[in-house]
Amino acid sequence: MRLEILCAEFKEKQNLFWKVSVTAKSFEENGGWRQHPGQEFLYVLSGKLELHSMYYDPITLVEGDSILFDADQPHAYIGVDGPAELIMMNGVSKPEEI
């Protein structure tokens, strides 16, 4: 994957925004499962993206499709028929104030 940080200069962010190019053609090429705290939102700009989850069947997203999911669940991305370009937003959990 190639990642480009968007809105990097914004302070005290609760969300991280990325422009992503998914080039992996297989689960193995992707490097296996990824997981992290928070939520993840994907919006496909071009190409065809296959989203794999340890708990659900794979889903294919095409240009204009979007999805929001709990990023604590192991997940992986595959570019079907070539690279998939997307916007990714990761929700950052803030510790509760005491």
Automatic annotation (TrEMBL):
Q: State the InterPro entries in the record.
A: Cupin_2, RmlC-like_jellyroll, RmlC_Cupin_sf
Q: Which organism is it from?
A: Labrys miyagiensis
Domain Cupin type-2 residue range list: 30-88
| One Pfam family, short name | Cupin_2
Protein's UniProt name:
Cupin type-2 domain-containing protein
